[in-house]
Amino acid sequence: MHPLVPYGWDADWEAEFAPFAEQGLLPGRVVRVDRGLCDVVTPVGTVRADTEFVVPRDPMKVVCTGDWVAVDPESSDPRYVRTLLPRRTAFVRSTSSKRSEGQVLATNIDHVVICVSLAVEFDLGRIERFLALAMSSSSGEALLQTSALSRESAAQPVVVLTKADLVPDATTLSYLVQDVEAAAPGVPVLTVSSTDGDGIDVLAAVVADGTAVLLGQSGAGKSTLANALLGVDVMEVQATRDADGKGRHTTTTRNLLAMPGGGVLIDTPGLRGVGLWDAGTGVGQVFAEIEELAAGCRFQDCAHTAEPGCAVLEALDSGVLAQRRLESYRKLQRENQYIVAKTDARLRAEIRKDWKKKGAEGKAAMEAKRGRQR
Q1: Would you call 92 helix, strand, or coil by DSSP?
Q2: 302 annotated to a ligand binding site
Q3: Does 146 show up as a binding residue in the annotation?
Q4: Known binder of ligand: residue 115?
Q5: 238-270 confidence digits (pLDDT tens)
């Protein structure tokens, strides 16, 4: 068996690497990146390599944890990463800067594990946001970008409710799971307790056939969960603050580790902000019931605000659709449109045109109202 099989090496990667093997380079997978240097697991062990030769102008193409690369052979000193193999998937979020940039969090992943702590009151809107990021993978959009090597289905999301041992009773836990399932239609929702070990075997079975990335806020229990899945205390953990249940950023880098039962795990630092990055399809999938309702609206360009014959508003009035869901849908749609418009001049022009149209309509309505008052 090839030494890299436990890290996800397969026949497709071998074929992709063939031209570089002829050059005498070694295949490897990046397990950690740190200030221009990275740790790469290769057939001869884990090596330290410089990324100087693959520093692009595009921040979306920097070396990242999960990448497959070609590195210099053992005789080279210093050793360099010479090239990146085409990524099958790349989980990307919008940066907090004002520039139109995305930040690659992990690459070549098959499962997106969204960790949510049951020790504090969770935010369903935040779960929907994470899912919108993850579920954009199925269309190969910029968020979870796919290459020619991508499998038929890209990374699959799963919501994991951690610290289940802190929930007082089974009935309460059942209600909490139902709330999350309503916000994550069609997505597996699992409960685990890293302390008691409950649910760990189920999750391990789900992620055993590929690479899984753990995502969530600080204090969600990602590092503790990683240790439970790995069977050893590899990741350092800290207690959450008693005042608000928030974590202290135990994990500061993204780390890739092979799991004993099969599969590869990428642990990530806690995410304070989760900005969308071209996640239009993901938003549509997370809110599939609203998209289905919208298909029944009288007007094709219905904004679902006050239009006559709006099926979405009718569902809202009848109680079929929850107000919170509609508000979350609108918010993520607006945010995603803003992000896409940063790099799409045509869309920016359409948005400005729409603003002018609405402004003119509002002005005309005010003038008509004043005329009636006179």
Answers
A1: strand
A2: yes
A3: no
A4: no
A5: 554 444 455 444 555 789 999 998 999 999 886
* Ligand-binding site membership of 223 (annotated): yes
Average pLDDT rounded to a whole number, residues 138-162: 57
Residue 2 known to bind ligand = no
162 annotated among ligand-binding-site residues: yes
d(CA 222, CA 42): 26
224 a known binding residue? Answer: yes
pLDDT at residue 243 in the model? 43
Q: Both 212 and 102 in a single domain?
A: yes
217 is in an annotated binding site: yes
Task: Tell me: is residue 153 an annotated ligand-binding position.
Answer: no
For the record, the structure tokens of 213 come out as 């990335």
218 is in an annotated binding site: yes
Q: Is the pTM of this model over 0.85?
A: no
What own/partner pairs with CB < 8 Å and gap ≥ 24 does 73-79 have? 73/24, 73/25, 73/26, 74/26, 74/44, 78/50, 79/47, 79/48, 79/49, 79/50
Q: Are residues 79 and 94 in the same domain?
A: no
Element (H, E) at 107: strand 102-107
The three-class DSSP label of residue 295 is coil
Higher-scoring residue by pLDDT: 134, 309? 309
pLDDT band at 146 (very low <50, low <70, confident <90, very high): very low
Backbone angles phi, psi at 50, to 5 degrees: -90, 140
What's the pLDDT score for residue 209?
87
Would you say 28 and 47 are in contact if contact means Cβ atoms under 8 Å apart? Answer: yes
Q: List, for residues 297-318, the tens digit of each pLDDT value.
A: 988 888 888 888 999 999 999 9
For residue 181, the enclosing domain spans 90-267
304 is in an annotated binding site: yes
**Mean pLDDT score of the chain, rounded to an integer?**
81
Burial of 136: CB neighbours in 10 Å, binned 0-12, 13-18, 19+ = buried
Do 80 and 95 belong to one domain? Answer: no
Q: How far apart are CA 106 and CA 120, in angstroms?
A: 27
Residue 310 assigned ligand-binding role? yes
Residue 80 sits in a domain whose CATH number is 2.40.50.140
- Whether 163 has a binding-site annotation, put simply, is yes
CATH number of the domain that residue 299 is part of: 1.10.40.50
Radius of gyration of the chain (CA): 23
- Structural domain count, the chain: 3
